[in-house]
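Researcher: Here's a chain I'd like modeled. Treat it as a single chain, no partners, no ligands.
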Amino acid sequence: MEFFDTHAHLADDRFSPDRDEVLRRAREAGVTRITEIADGPAEWELALKLCRQAPGGLAFSCALGLHPYHAADFSAEVLAALKAHARLPEVVAVGEIGLDYAKGSAPREVQFPVFEALLDAARALEKPAVIHCREAFPDTLAALRNLYPSRPKTRRFWGVVHCFTGDAEQAAEIAGLGFALGVDGPVTYPKNEGLRTALKAAGPSVLVLETDSPFLPPQSSRGQRNEPRAIPEIAAKLAETLGLPLEDLARAAMDNALALFSQRPGI
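Model: Modeled as a single isolated chain. Structure tokens:
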């Protein structure tokens, strides 16, 4: 089985001491593809460097964005730089962008117009959007309805709502708008039955696997640094939730991820 970690932060300093070992363990776990997520301009070149080096025999791509934590740093110059960088061949998406009303330091009235501007840029660039949504589903959905009023005609997904944490109704609306749902370590947490119910209702055709490394470790490693090698544990719990053989879930998630980022099978 092969797995695609569609959302990781491997350029993070927490991986500096042993990044090669982390990637070796990922490959041994069956992870063959990783999309590196850069949350702001200071990280863009690091993500691009990682993609170009393609360490560990893995296929790397990257997404460049401005996390809602950095919404106050948005400017016309940042937007112009993002658009220029996003045209590079290594860049498969615009993200991580979005809204965070739980920990974001910028007020909602700052975050929301920045999010809309970045979504508009993703559409203009014809790149999928990697969306962060934390305690902000009403506003996130309002922005998506406004900027993506119909499903895509030339590809399967407009983007992905990363680390989906909503309910079944929100999952259905997001999928109906043409977005995938990212599934991370929290699907394995015993108290997250509501999340598993929502993902089961959404179905395997709109789900992709991600770790958000070094964040959000699965149940077996709670409190530790997360790594891409956790993908099989996440996949196994999701397969159990959906009532599918692991091989079928892995194949569906890989197909969805390749479609999301307009990539082809094979390394």
